[in-house]
Amino acid sequence: MKTAKTKICLIIGDPVDHSLSPLMHNTAYEAVGLGENFVYLAFSVPVAKMKSVIDAVRTFGIRGLTCTVPHKVAVIPFLDEIDPVAQKIGAVNSVVNTDGVLKGFNTDWLGAIAPLKNRISLNQKKVLVIGAGGAARAVVFGLLKENAKVTLINRTTEKALELAHEFSCYYKKCVDSSLIAEQDVIINTTSVGMSPNTSKSPISVEGIHKGQILMDIVYSPFETELLKHGKKRGATIIYGTEMLLYQGAAQFELYTGVRAPIKIMEKTLLSTIRI
């Protein structure tokens, strides 16, 4: 039962209706006996309203604020403190309110790297990252931390060049099947292929082959067009729900101070999947 003492955590995005975070977190709260202490909500908010959101977090004493697209960079100027890792990444996906002091963190990089490390060592592996937004920044940070060789591609050249320069990685303007074929890992960090535009893929699948790992951070739909065709070509597939799980577990611990029940969170996510 929720009471006047129940702490609020929420996710904001635009859009956000597809988010599985409220279900995952609320189920986890119940599992560890925090059902009366925490509730996790979702609100669709345009990026222009970020200041109003932060004002509300302070006014209502909201404990945790999760930022998804397009808020991960936009939230930074309104915070009191930034964790050094989030500062390096240049994007925040988790904000913790401690007695009115708002501190930004990034758990996306943990969410992306954990599923990959469960399968391979990233040391000296060639990794192609699609995108140059907030999620890409976190993924690139994590990959470089594991000593991977990262190449960026992005629809907007200027943004990709800026990110490549900042993190000292490669950028390719022209993407062809030979570039794709030589990669050990390919990661889509864009929203291309997300519902309702499920027929789209961020790259051509020509060049994808057996022995590669193909990861998409999009989890709605569960199996994106990119993953669907990549699987047919023999690549090892990592679904977006895995990144959601691991970044969410780290976030859960930031907000509650309690160890996340990962197995229960994973079971909750998979129970919602409709392929």
Characterization of this structure:
There is one protein chain. The protein has about 280 residues and is an alpha/beta fold. It has 2 domains: about 5-105 and about 240-270, Leucine Dehydrogenase, chain A, domain 1 (Rossmann fold, 3-Layer(aba) Sandwich), CATH 3.40.50; about 110-240, NAD(P)-binding Rossmann-like Domain (Rossmann fold, 3-Layer(aba) Sandwich). About 35% of the residues lie in helices and about 20% in strands. The protein contains 10 helices and 12 strands. The chain has helices at about 20-30, 50-60, 85-90, 110-115, 135-145, 155-165, 175-180, 225-230, 240-255, 260-270; strands at about 5-15, 40-45, 65, 80, 95-100, 100-105, 125-130, 150-155, 170, 185-190, 215, 235-240. Strand 5 and strand 6 (about 100-105) form a beta hairpin.
Number of domains: 2
Shape: globular
Q: Beta-strand percentage?
A: 15-25%
What is the chain-wise order of helices and strands?
EHEHEEHEEHEHEHEHEEHEHH
**Largest sheet properties:** 6 strands, mixed
Number of strands: 12
Spatially, the strands of the biggest sheet line up as 2-1-3-5-6-4
Radius of gyration, taken over Cα atoms and rounded to an integer in Å: 18 Å
Computed structural class: alpha/beta
The overall average pLDDT, rounded, is 95
CATH homologous superfamily annotation of the largest domain: Leucine Dehydrogenase, chain A, domain 1
Helix content: 25-40%
Please give the CATH class of the largest domain.
Alpha Beta
Low-pLDDT segments: none
In whole angstroms, how far apart are the ends?
34 Å
